[in-house]
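Handout, section 4.2: multi-component inputs.
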Amino acid sequence: MPQRLRNYLPILDWGRSYNKATLSNDLMAAVIVTIMLIPQSLAYALLAGLPPEAGLYASIVPILLYAVFGTSRALAVGPVAVVSLMTAAALGNIADQGTMGYAVAALTLAFLSGVILLTMGVFKLGFLANFLSHPVIAGFITASGVIIAASQIKHILGISASGDNLISLLVSLWQNLGNTNWVTVIIGVSATAFLFWVRRGLKPFLKSKGASARVADVATKAGPVAAVVLTTVAVWILGLADMGVRIVGSVPQSLPPLTLPDFSLDMMGSLLLPAILISVIGFVESISVAQTLAAKRRQRINPDQELIGLGTANIGAAFTGGFPVTGGFARSVVNFDAGAETPAAGAFTAVGLAIAALALTPLVFFLPQATLAATIIVAVLTLVDFSILKKSWAYSKADFAAVLATMLVTLGDGVELGVTCGVILSIFLHLYKTTRPHIAEVGLVPGTEHFRNIHRHKVETDPTLLTLRIDESLYFANAHFLEDYIYDRLADDKKLKNVVLMCSAINEIDLSALESLEAVNARLRDMGIQLHLSEVKGPVMDRLKKQHFIDDLTGRVFLSQHEAYRALTTQTG
Amino acid sequence: MPQRLRNYLPILDWGRSYNKATLSNDLMAAVIVTIMLIPQSLAYALLAGLPPEAGLYASIVPILLYAVFGTSRALAVGPVAVVSLMTAAALGNIADQGTMGYAVAALTLAFLSGVILLTMGVFKLGFLANFLSHPVIAGFITASGVIIAASQIKHILGISASGDNLISLLVSLWQNLGNTNWVTVIIGVSATAFLFWVRRGLKPFLKSKGASARVADVATKAGPVAAVVLTTVAVWILGLADMGVRIVGSVPQSLPPLTLPDFSLDMMGSLLLPAILISVIGFVESISVAQTLAAKRRQRINPDQELIGLGTANIGAAFTGGFPVTGGFARSVVNFDAGAETPAAGAFTAVGLAIAALALTPLVFFLPQATLAATIIVAVLTLVDFSILKKSWAYSKADFAAVLATMLVTLGDGVELGVTCGVILSIFLHLYKTTRPHIAEVGLVPGTEHFRNIHRHKVETDPTLLTLRIDESLYFANAHFLEDYIYDRLADDKKLKNVVLMCSAINEIDLSALESLEAVNARLRDMGIQLHLSEVKGPVMDRLKKQHFIDDLTGRVFLSQHEAYRALTTQTG
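Output:
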């Protein structure tokens, strides 16, 4: 079987060595993940503004497709919090929640995301995701977590409220506060408190009672299911639905239906930008989970193939009643911890969820929406981590500015503008730093062949020789700066005979910069000063030789700065 | 008088040393420039789609304001070809040519450009113009020149045609070709041929006839005026206007009128983007002319003060019946060559043009539009220079791609998208190059303290020691690349004990890159390999010390790579 085909279909690789032991591990992981995913899928559908069954559908076919095309052994694909929030934000501009148009727009969004991811994968554009810096991602995820938690408060209070950002959400909540349903509040608050306790306090408690680590672990993971069962039974027996507690209600008993996105150019056009953002954010979240897990088992992830896996998963979601999906952190970690060894575990999870969609949906009729909101709130608060503000402040003001802008704009305006601002600002700040490169005047460290900044070290210099070490590649954005710097430096120095540009940190000289250097060379020639270069890197020199610059240079090109120093000080001294 | 005030009002500087000699030089230059500017101003107004007098008005008050606030001694401010074309493109979306709304939109565009330039000047944002690389500017100017020339063909043929880009212009010309006015064609073609001959052939011809260089020079500059006089007289005497030759017609005899831009948010909003582009392009054109001329006399230009000068000039244009202006190449060179010594020459030119606007406009009644079109065509064809394609191709494919995209999009879609694409593409290509940095494995050049690429030089290495020189700053866009590179390199090397990252070309390590280095450090620790750094720059080291990275580093930080090599090879060898 050709390696090329195996690269595109990773299933051919791991499928060949599949055996009984792997099967039993994968099956075990699938059971645990399925139990965890049932409430989570319903909850994220709610967050995305879709009917609960959409959450199940979005977890079935996408998982199967990722199992065929994805490279991560443990990644679990499906609806995740941040992408669901972004989906709701994008669809809110297109249609009203609960309408047919809204559901079709969700399918279209998934389809577009899928096509974008697939295209990025085929053309190996995965590197584009690198333009989301770590601080921007951290700020975005934290702010999104806050918005998601705030968006669920209405379900805890049993009121209606809407808004894409923190401010509009809080205003809307405040206006509707009068309609609070106190029975719902009791359910919602106790479910939230219970889930927090399960997450923080249950494991130590069980261990102190002598339970094994394994039992404590399983009990912790079963927490959300317990909350679901307890509150559903309470609503059913006590007839709380008649007291205004909103419940999930009837969910169709069906396998994922065959659905069609809206292929009209109009709809595609208005969803394109959100689809790009969802694709990139989803990819970044997914790849970072996949890489973290792969590193633990010394496996490698192929980012471009990951794009193909996620792309097909989203296209699958679009045709089977789902919405945009990606690899989720919580579910993947559970899958990994539960011992999943191959993507087959995902396939078994899909089967489990299909059974749930077919047979178990009547059981969630009385499930209160407040319980689902509680599971979301507890899950997303683990995403919220403001420490990045402190860390970036201490390290670099540019990184801090990018984090802060991302957070503030996300909270104040919404996810789409938030992440866009973060990316643009971090690129701009990076470019800005390169427009004013650090230029050091250097001299010889006595007794060595090293040259260091004359302002930081005790060094030898010569009054007829000026050596400038330029700590940046030269390109259009900083070409003028260097020219101005040199002219300013020469203005008050009459003794100079030679100027050396030490190029050890210059990794590129583009055409604009070359033209600036030509101008400097001509200007210095008029002033009777020779221009030399030293320590020019191989690739830079190769390129300079393609133009007349080296021929026109008034001075010489020295392999090392030490050689330049010796030649030019002996010559003049 | 405080220096600060003099910085903001350069007139206070040169005004103090003004004397008779300077006055006579400035007056002489003003006369020559005024004669040249009268037809040119009318022609550029035509190009911008405005009545001819607007060209004169746009040259009077703006010149005076620039004389007060500008820093260049020779720059002549007024309508220029590329900015006039951009004005027409921007206004074409707002109103029809010839309407009142069109003229008001032109004032608004000038006002917005003025405010943008002034703001950039006050906040010292002139460096933003550096993001227009030389190749992008060259490509843009060439493509604009082609479009401008094409846009004037209709006047030469005496037909109507419109279009923002080359394709729509040519299609429109083709469709209207049947209406060609042959008398107009005779005037237009002979004027064009005459002007070309004046520009190329007159000077050598006069010199061969024994004329002095000075006389030949003046005769060449008077060419356009001669064409104007000859064709105007021909149209008048032969009554050609009755044969369908379009003439300038009656131009009001007036000083620049007081006018008001449209301050509605709606109008401002729709002109904001074009105004930004016009400001930046105008500034780049102006500053490069100013710097070229200043360099010839060893004067310096202050870019931020230039922004203030151009900003006030445009605001002046907005309130006196003009349209966007900037420093023009041709007129400035003429001004400089004619001996202008201070901005007072500009002020005298303004007086000359004011007299023309008051007294001479009846004389241009019979001036054929074809003659103005001929002056534009001959002037802009000097801007057209496709050699940048060849030059950039030879030097760097990235620069070539930026030039080509700028040209094609400008020709195919228009100036606004053209220049935007050029800027975005050149920034993207620059960033792209930095996402895959050059990483060289280096070894010791025997008998020296220098380390060079093992693939380019004969060097000493040690099997337990891997030294990687990273030829790029580390930041979010390439942090993952380095991580992947190191993991891939280590995968097939079991003997390694030490990895040194040689940081001589690393000018920055941002927070994302720091987190990647932390990950590399942890991963190598698990593999039993120590990670060291060498030749870390001062500013980078200062920053690294703010975090735990240096404490957590499994290895050491060496001042020089040679030190690292000695320590790590002795230790293990």
